[in-house]
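Q: Convert this sequence to structure tokens.
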Amino acid sequence: MEFKDLVALLHPTLAIVVVFPSIGIVVNRALLVRQRRLASQGSEKSKIPPSVGTEHVEMGKWLSGSVVGVALLGLAYPIFSKMLANETFAKEPFRGVFVAIMFVASIASLVILYQARTKVWRAVFATLAGMGLVVLGCQPEIFRRDNEWFMSHFYYGIAASLLMIFSLAIVQDIYQDRQNRWRLAHIILNCFALLLFVGQGMTGARDLLEIPLSWQEPFVYKCDYVNKTCPQLK
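A:
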């Protein structure tokens, strides 16, 4: 493999090493928190320690940041590699600078979101981080599989990232809401996010099979993907 192939593998590598193990831990802690809460409501003494709630929150924050970070990395490689190959910074300097600023602004918004305390600022920086992801995802260098959006690694990833940003933004509201509406919304949306993560595993594995190494590209990209045929070797 060449250096560009190794760089391309950073996104799936971090997803496998960091994101998916974190998902397992967060789900495990969420189930333990629910079991402890149900036991408390039933006036039973639970063997599950109170610290499990704090662990769930902290691991949830770690997971949210990891998902968004890996998504940004997954967008950065195709955007900048294709921009450099096509000399976009010389041909379209405004767009090149705009994209670079959007990456910086998205990362900065996510970092500030972790520090924000008031509801207004959490909403502002969550919106900015989400908008940054969407705008970057709309760049022409990104392969979105629009004709198969229902099985698109891109759309699953953006949707999961937006849900993680939303979850990060409402953490304080969950504990302040006496009627548990935010907690219910958190549970429903993150159950959906879990399904998206399963889809990410499936579509990501499929895409890795379809993306050739750099030295294989000239031959593989001549294949007819509709009729599933490739040029015959002489």
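The longest helix spans residues 51-85.
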